[in-house]
Design goal:
By secondary structure, the chain is mostly helical. The chain is built from eight helices and no strands. Helix 5 packs antiparallel against helix 8.
Length: 201
Amino acid sequence: MFYYLNVIGTMAFAVSASLTAMNKKLDPFGVFVIAFATSVGGGTLRDVLIGNTPVGWMRDLNVVYFIIAGFLLAVIFRKKLDKLRVSLFLFDTIGLGVFTLIGIEQGIATGLHPVICVALGTMTACFGGVIRDILCNEIPVIFRKEIYATLCIVGGIFFFTLRDAFRMNQDVLYITTSALIITLRLLAVRYKWYLAPLDRN
């Protein structure tokens, strides 16, 4: 289940980033660079911090193939994706939910405290998007008022609560946590939940 979640998350972020880059009218190479950096950015930072080197995508070439597949899907079907913003949001949300779990699981495998695991999950899910937005000359979503990283933290707390209190089956735990994060983000956008920006006045 963990492996398949990684495949889904990688391809979802690759598609999301490709759509963003195409919306910025970048050339094919630029689109692929954005897709690649977004898909592996969070995981690369996480692996470097926990000393897991060479980083994941360097040891598993399948990750590169999944990114290429996501890039090609976005390019081939770009004209069919009439509602570009909806498609972008949907794939980005899926990637957010899945990559949070991947980061948490890597922290657990390293024997780190749950608080650090949640931080790693949030970093894995969000940092690729930060790279994408910076390269596309946008203020990163994580720094704007939209609830984004907060959902990863909530999902991480939910994960450890279910794991420790209910001893839930691991596969069910993965699916439930990722579904919660995805659902919360859909609801947050639908009902305009957000954190109020800080103002000096």
